C-alpha cells in the first residue's frame, strides 16, 4: 500500500511529481477515477478539506462516500480504530481520514486494505495542505528555491505551517518564524531544520519579521490557546497584516493563509495582486486530484 | 453570472422558459450536466428541498457536493459569508444556498465565482418553490390566466405563498388571501399587487375565502407565531380544509401545499383528484432540472 | 412493488437467487444501475450499513441520495411517516430505510411509490444482514445444509441473530442458542422453528454451547439491557470467545459477528483462518448489490 501520512515521508522526487501532476489538473475534468470510490472519514468537522477532496474525486469521474460525524458512530460503541479501518477500507479504493489525535492516520493505515491519505491528524500533520501550499508558492513565484518564506501567527499548534516547513526542507529557502513566545515553532522542527541545514530565524516582532518576505504565510492565533484573554487580545491586535504593512515592508510578498481567515489579514488586502489565499483553494483541488491518482 | 435570487427579478419570459423546460424534464434522465458539480449549502435543514435539488442534478448526470450543517462549520470560527462564498464557489459549477437570514443569498452571490440559486433565505424568498408551484398550477389547470387563486394560513411569515404571489403578478389572476389578522399578507406585497394592477381581496373567514377557488394554496400556521397558545389552538381548528368544505365550497379547486402538511389538510382529501400536493414534489424535480440547466 | 421487509417473507427460491447473484457481484464494477437513484433514509445512525448500501449502488454505476439524520428533519415538524414516504419515494428508484420502530419499514412501503428495503427496523428485522450472513456461511463452508450453527450473546434483542435464524429455517441445519436467561431467543422464534421442524437446543453454558460448532455467530451483550451492572459484568466476562476455546471446543468453526465487536471476540482470533467477521463486510456489499438489482 501507498499511504500519504506525513510531510517528512515525502521524497523530493515524490513532491515534484505531485506538483507537476497538479499543474496538469488545473481546470481539468476527466474520467481517470471512473469506477473508483473514495471514502472520506471525518472524525472532526472540516467542510473545506472534505469538499476539496470530494470535488477532486468527482472531477476525475470517481465516486465518494462520506462520513462527516465519525466521532458519533460505532467508535462510540467501543469499536477500536483498528476494527473500523478493517471494515471501512473494504468499502473504498482509497481512504481520506481526518482525526483529532496525532498518529491515528498511521494506525488506521496499518489496518487498512487500501491506501490512506492523512487529511490532518491532531497537532502535527496535514501533508495535503502542505503540498497545496507548496504548489501555490511555485505557481505564484515561478520557483521555490531562493525564496524567503515568512510564517506568522500560531506556529506551535498550527499544523499547516508545520507541515509546510517540513516540505520546504527539500528546497533552498530561508525561513523566518514570526510568533509570540507562547506560540513559537516546536523545538523538534527547529532541530530538523538544523539537521537539514536549512537557514532560519525567529522573532516575535511582527513588523520586523515580515520585512522583505517573498512569501508570507499567515495563520490564525486562537483565543483558546491563552489562559488570560487579555494576553490574547494584545497579541491578536499586533499580528494583523494591513495593506500599509505589505506596501511598506514586503511589497513583493505572496500572501497566503490556510483559511478560515478571521482578523489576521485585513480585508483591504483581498484585492491586492499579492493576495493568494483564495487562489490556494483552486490549487488545492488540483493538488488533491494529483494525490488521488498517485496514491490510489 | 446568472443568479436566481428572488421571484420579482424574474421576467415573464424567463418564467415561461423555465416552465416549458420543466415540462420536457418530467420523467427525463440524461447527461446534460455531465462533468458539472452542484454545491448544496444548507445553513438550516431542509431535507425535502435538498433532496429535490440532488435528484434533479443526478437525473441530469451531474454530481453533487452537500453541506447540511453549514451553521456548525467554519462560519462559527468567525469566517464571513463573503469569504465562505469566495472559497466554496470554487468547488462547484453552481451553488444552491439555504440560509435563515434574508438577503444572505444575494450577499453570497456577490462573492461567488459561479451562479447562485436561492433555496430560501429567511422570511421573504423561495423562488424555486414558487416556480414549481406555478408549474403545478399550469399542469393541473392547463392554464394560469383567468384563475382565482386562494391562499390560506400563515401569509405573513410563509415565504412560499409570498414568493408565489409575486410570480403570479405576471399573469391575469384574481388572488384571495385568507388569513387571521396576525398572519395577513405583508403590506409591501399588497402594494406591489396594486402597482401591478392585480385584483385581490382579503378575509379571515376561511369558509367564505375558499368559495369558488380554482386553486387553493394552503399553508401551515405555526404555533411559534403566537404568544398565547389558546389563540393558536382556536385558529388552527378553523383553518382546516376538510373534504366536505372542498365539495361544498370549491369542488373544482386544485389543492396545493408546500409541505410538510400537519393538520391543515384532512387526510381524507388525499385520495381526491383535487389533491395536487404530492404531485408538486415530482413537478419540483422537473422545475429544478430546468433551473439548473438554465442558470449554470 | 417488490419490497424486502422481513426474512420470513423470503421464499427459498428468492434467497437462493440472491445468493447466486451475490456470488457473481464479488469484486464486480458495472453500470447495471446507471441512471438509477437509491435514497438512503436513516432514522437512526448506522454508518456501516449506510456505507455498504452506498458502495453497492455506486459499484453498480447508480447514484445515491442520503439522509443520515431523518429523526431531526420534517418528521419533527409533525409530518406523518405516510406523508414522508409519499414525498421521498418520488426522489428515488428504490428506498433503503433504517428506523428504530418495528413495523415502520412496512408502513413506509405501504405509502411508497418505489420498492423499499428494510435495513433494520427496531427489534426484529434486518433481512439484508441475514442474507449477507447466510451468504458468508455458504462461502466459508461451501454449503448450508448439514451444519451446526451456534448463536451466542444477546439473542433476545439482537435482530441480526433473529433474522438469520428465520432464514436458516429454509435449510437442514441444527441450531444452538447460547444465551443467559435474560437474553434468550424470543418464544415466537422458537415456536416458528418448531412449526418448521428445525432442530434446536438452548443453553446458558458458553463452553458447552459452542462445542462442535460448524458456524459460531457471536453477538454483543449490551450493558443497557441490565438493571444491575454487576449482572452485566459477570456475564460479559463469561461470553468471551478466546483462541483457546476455539481450538479446544470448535476448531473447525467459522466465526462470525455482525460488528461492531467489543470484547466478545478476543483480538487474538483475528488472525485465525476461522475468523470470518471482516470477510462478512465484503460479502455484504455483494449481497446488497444483488438485492438492489433484484428489487429495483
| Helical proportion of chain A, percent range | 25-40%
N- to C-terminal distance of chain A: 9 Å
Using the 3D structure, state the CATH architecture of the largest domain in chain A. Answer: 3-Layer(aba) Sandwich
Strand content of chain A: 15-25%
Number of helices of chain A: 11
Name of the CATH class of the largest domain in chain A: Alpha Beta
Overall geometry of chain A comes to globular
For the secondary structure, the number of strands of chain A is 9
Give the spatial strand order of the biggest sheet of chain A.
7-6-5-8-9
Oligomer: homotrimer
Order of helices and strands of chain A: HEHEHEHEHEHEHEHEHHEH
Helix vs. strand class of chain A: alpha/beta
Largest interface: A-B, 20 and 21 residues
What can you tell me about this protein's structure?
The structure is a homotrimer of 296-residue chains. The first copy, chain A, is α/β, with parallel strands linked by helices. The first copy, chain A, folds into 2 domains: 31-125, Aspartate/ornithine carbamoyltransferase (Rossmann fold, 3-Layer(aba) Sandwich), CATH 3.40.50; 127-280, Aspartate/ornithine carbamoyltransferase (Rossmann fold). In chain A, 40% of the residues lie in helices and 16% in strands. Chain A is built from 11 helices and 9 strands. In chain A, strands 7-6-5-8-9 form a 5-stranded parallel β-sheet. In chain A, strands 2-1-3-4 form a 4-stranded parallel β-sheet, sandwiched between helices. In chain A, α2 links the parallel β1 (37-42) and β2. In chain A, α5 (127-141) crosses α6 (159-168). The model of chain A has no long low-confidence stretch (mean pLDDT 94).
